[in-house]
Design brief:
This protein is mainly β. It has helices at residues 40-43, 83-86, 125-128, 208-211; strands at residues 9-14, 17-22, 26-28, 35-37, 51-56, 59-64, 68-69, 79-80, 95-99, 102-106, 111-113, 120-122, 136-141, 144-149, 153-155, 162-164, 178-182, 185-189, 194-196, 203-205, 219-224, 227-232, 236-238, 245-247. The strands form twelve sheets. A two-stranded antiparallel ribbon has the order 1-2.
Length: 248
């Protein structure tokens, strides 16, 4: 037996000669005495698709680019990896969209893509702007924020801002007489001749006669609700509004 015949194959005797039957991945050399490796990568440069073809003895291997792998359905060419299907935890907080050789996270409003691109992170709007929720406090929530308003203010319907409450439109603010609204507050006031009570809501008559005993100089002071009148002594004449006594 001649051992150098039909390397990488099988030798079959024929009448007066022999023939080589080569193994897979090998072909007869020009002398048809031995089997030499077939360089599949040189014959078909695009054999691996999205990867690099590496020739091996009697075969080849594909070194796939990132986002691709070989071996799908026993095939050696490089196929796209569906990262979204393989890892359900990708793009938490958003939607994972597979694309050729990679994937992309699509994040809902109020979220941003993480630095490594693998998840959606909540945006803390309260830290981004000091102008949010004027006259209140900004409260961050998942995907949004809302305002917790100061006393005297209420949140808008979308809870994204604080607006003044007009207390005077609600039972006159509890004021007995006049109610004046102001930014974030309100104030009660009384008619002339009345003073605001310590509760800052109700009004009481001012006794001008007691507060100023000499108010009717030349007469007697008489307190009446909201004002006073002077009853003048002989020799004096009351003014038209009856609030002073005039000498004759």
């Amino acid at each position: 037996m001649i051992h150098s015949l039909c390397s990488n194959g099988k030798c079959r005797n024929t009448i007066g000669s022999f023939r080589c039957r080569c193994d897979n991945g090998f072909a007869l050399d020009s002398d048809e005495r031995n089997c030499t490796d077939i360089d599949e990568c040189r014959i078909s440069p695009d054999l691996c698709g999205q990867g690099t073809c590496v020739n091996t003895g009697g075969d080849f291997e594909c070194e796939c680019f990132e986002g691709y792998e070989s071996g799908f359905m026993m095939m050696k060419n490089c196929m796209d990896i569906d990262e979204c299907e393989r890892n359900p935890l990708l793009c938490r907080g958003g939607e994972c969209v597979n694309n050729e050789g990679s994937f992309q996270c699509v994040c809902p409003d109020g979220h941003e893509i993480a630095p490594d691109g693998s998840a959606c992170l909540d945006i803390n709007e309260c830290e981004l702007s000091e102008k949010l929720c004027r006259n209140g406090q900004c409260v961050n929530m998942i995907g949004r924020y809302q305002c917790s308003c100061d006393t005297g203010y209420k949140s808008t319907e979308d809870r994204l801002a604080c607006v003044d409450i007009d207390e005077c439109t609600i039972q006159n603010g509890g004021c007995e007489t006049f109610c004046t609204n102001s930014e974030g507050s309100y104030e009660c006031s009384c008619r002339s001749g009345y003073a605001l009570m310590p509760d800052l809501r109700t009004c009481t008559d001012i006794d001008e006669c007691e507060d100023s005993p000499d108010i009717c100089d030349g007469g007697q002071c008489t307190n009446i609700p909201g004002e006073y009148q002077c009853l003048c002594f002989d020799g004096f004449m009351s003014s038209e509004d009856m609030k002073t006594c005039l000498g004759n």
